[in-house]
Write a structure and sequence with these properties.
This protein has helices at 3-23, 146-177, 183-213, 223-229, 233-253, 266-285, 295-321, 332-361, 366-370, 373-401, 415-448, 452-456; strands at residues 33-37, 42-44, 50-55, 60-70, 75-76, 82-83, 90-94, 101-110, 116-125, 461-467, 474-481, 486-495, 506-513, 519-521, 525-528, 531-539, 543-555, 558-570. With 571 residues, the protein is of the alpha+beta class. The strands form four sheets. Strands 2-9-8-4-5 form a five-stranded mixed sheet, with helices on one face. The protein has a five-stranded antiparallel sheet with strand order 10-11-12-16-15, with no helix packed on it. Helix 3 packs across helix 4 (223-229), helix 5 (233-253) packs antiparallel against helix 6 and helix 6 packs across helix 7 (295-321). The longest helix has 34 residues, at 415-448. The two termini are 55 Å apart.
């Protein structure tokens, strides 16, 4: 491989990588429900006109749902979910006037990384004790059918496979196969990649609607559903991918005129590099890379990761189908030596960028790998990648045997070497391709999984405790957000045993660790007749805490001090 050609192929990707770093916009992680009105597992004295749910990030409501049920499982007719005028993080739905009692809210929205998230909670209207967590009905939000989920996963895997054949095949043609008898077959592999990528992209757009809404496969064929998908973040990214595929189509039309003797002109190389980088960035922009922390690094590194995967796996496929089938007419040694160098650096890039992605989505906590679906899938992927790298090392060692004779030696001088080693290479490279396909399948499942950091992130704590006796009896509702080390917001409500608002004179509270070594004053201030709060409770360490509450109320002209104790886990 000539230095000039390598430089031309590397300069444009490097510049495009800098551009990607500059334009990558930060976003939040998988959406988490932060607060609700009426409060989650709380009590409202009267029926409000709307329900509101506030999340940790902007969410899509095109395919979402907010359903309200009675304890008997009867669904309440509600309005269409919509965003709050103030922020796209809050979803609002109109409800009719509700009779006193306990109700269940089952919700489903689309996170910023295009994946559906759902959950449920209960609340009470009117007198009565606060409901237990989700404790009055068994209805939940709809789940996607197995057929839809399976086909959507296949479409995701098809996107990665198409990228590998299209991008990796093109690089293989330009660096290795151009001008050889394998060029024609390599071009067929490239065109196959374009078709697979285009079909998979269209299928993913069609399936995103029923997958996100939890409906059947029939909705994939409804234009109204597809139109709504195209208005989402996922839809916008796939529109860009389809436009890039049109550009790739134009470039591929002139690919037949490019070989070792007629190298690609500079304009073609620049345009092809931009299209390849754009295509490789689309999975990240529509998925986890564009959400969470450090997106300014995550999106470019994810793009580089996909490019390295494509060059390596696409080249392996081309090598397996073309070189070992005798298509190189005596040029096998040069092809193997060149591809071995390229593959080595692809492996280095894959390992480094993969380590960053693993840390970003899981972290260093062992339970992130052992107690979450994302962690389990990542361990499987790591195991397959280790086996893949082992086979690559074996192939590389076999290739090095070809260097016992100079590259310009006649084929007859190395016939014995080829006879002994090509059979072994065929097996090792075939194994690499099989393990590479397995990596693509696991990657497609990882794209659909909730990142371990999001799954393990502390959720808002909500608890209720009964306090006092006789005339001083009351129910104390407490929420702590986010119930983790650092700054927390605490809300405390006092209610009668029947759930009505109970006005009090004053309140104080503190959090005490189980070993009594840490005590955090809550510094509550009045937020209403029965509501006290603080936005500045700083908890220094994780562990099990007790929240000690003192409520001062006036009964028959006397001041009564009523204590309450609530167990609070802090992560």
């Amino acid at each position: 491989m000539r230095a000039g050609r390598l430089a031309r192929l590397c300069v444009v990707p490097a510049l495009a990588g800098i551009i990607l770093v500059a334009i990558a916009a930060p976003a939040s992680a998988h959406a988490v429900l932060k607060s609700t009105d009426p409060p989650k597992d709380g009590v409202a004295a009267t029926s409000p006109p709307d329900l509101s749910l506030t999340f940790s990030e902007n969410v899509e409501v095109s395919f979402g749902a907010v359903r309200v049920y009675t304890c008997a499982g009867q669904r309440i007719t509600t309005g269409t979910p919509r965003h709050s005028p103030a922020t796209d993080r809050t979803v609002v739905v109109s409800i009719p006037k509700l009779s006193p009692g306990v109700y269940l809210v089952a919700w489903r929205v689309i996170s910023a990384d295009s994946h559906p998230v759902d959950g449920s909670y209960s609340f009470r209207i009117g007198p009565g004790a606060a409901p237990s967590v989700n404790g009055c009905a068994t209805e939940t939000t709809a789940k996607s059918s197995v057929t839809v989920g399976t086909l959507f996963g296949v479409a995701r895997a098809g996107v990665f496979a198409g990228l590998a054949l299209l991008i990796g095949g093109t690089v293989f043609l330009l660096l290795i196969a151009g001008g050889s008898s394998a060029a024609r077959s390599t071009r067929r592999a490239i065109w196959s990649g374009w078709i697979v990528l285009a079909v998979s992209t269209v299928a993913a757009v069609a399936l995103q609607g029923p997958y996100a809404a939890g409906t059947g496969i029939g909705d994939a064929f409804k234009w109204s559903v597809v139109h709504d998908v195209l208005q989402t973040r996922f839809g916008h990214v796939t529109e860009v991918r389809l436009l890039l595929l049109v550009g790739a189509l134009v470039l591929l039309a002139s690919l037949g005129r490019i070989d070792r003797r007629r190298r690609a002109p500079l304009w073609w190389t620049i345009a092809a590099a931009i299209v390849a980088i754009g295509l490789a960035s689309t999975p990240g922009y529509a998925g986890h890379a564009a959400t969470g922390d450090f997106t300014i690094f995550a999106v470019p590194l994810d793009t580089i990761h996909v490019l390295a995967m494509s060059v390596w796996l696409g080249g392996l496929v081309a090598l397996l189908l073309e070189a070992f089938g005798g298509s190189f007419s005596g040029g096998l040694r040069r092809a193997l030596t060149t591809f071995s160098r390229v593959a080595f650096w692809c492996v280095v890039v894959l390992v480094l960028s993969g380590l960053f992605a693993s840390w970003r989505q899981v972290g260093f906590a062992v339970r992130g790998y052992t107690s979450t679906s994302y962690g389990h899938l990542l361990l499987i992927k790591l195991a397959v990648v280790v086996a893949l790298i082992g086979l690559a090392a074996l192939s590389r060692s076999i290739v090095r045997k070809h260097r016992t004779a100079p590259l310009d030696a006649p084929d007859s001088a190395i016939a014995a070497i080829d006879e002994r080693t090509v059979a072994g290479l065929r097996r090792s490279v075939a194994g690499e391709v099989l393990f590479g396909v397995a990596v693509l399948a696991v990657t497609a499942m990882l794209v659909n999984a909730i990142p371990a950091r999001s799954e393990l992130a502390p959720k808002l704590f909500a608890g209720t405790v009964s306090a006092g006796t006789g005339a001083s009896a009351m129910t104390i509702n407490v929420t702590i957000d986010p119930a983790r080390v650092g700054l927390n917001t605490i809300h405390v409500y006092t209610l009668t045993p029947k759930g009505a608002d109970l006005s009090i004179r004053d309140m104080s509270a503190k959090l005490v660790s189980a070993d009594r070594s840490t005590s955090v004053p809550a510094n509550l201030v009045r937020g209403g007749p029965n509501h006290f709060l603080t936005n500045s409770a700083t908890i220094p360490a994780a562990g099990k805490y007790q929240m000690l509450i003192q409520v001062l109320q006036v009964i028959d002209g006397r001041l009564i001090d009523t204590p309450g104790v609530l167990k609070v886990p802090i992560r």
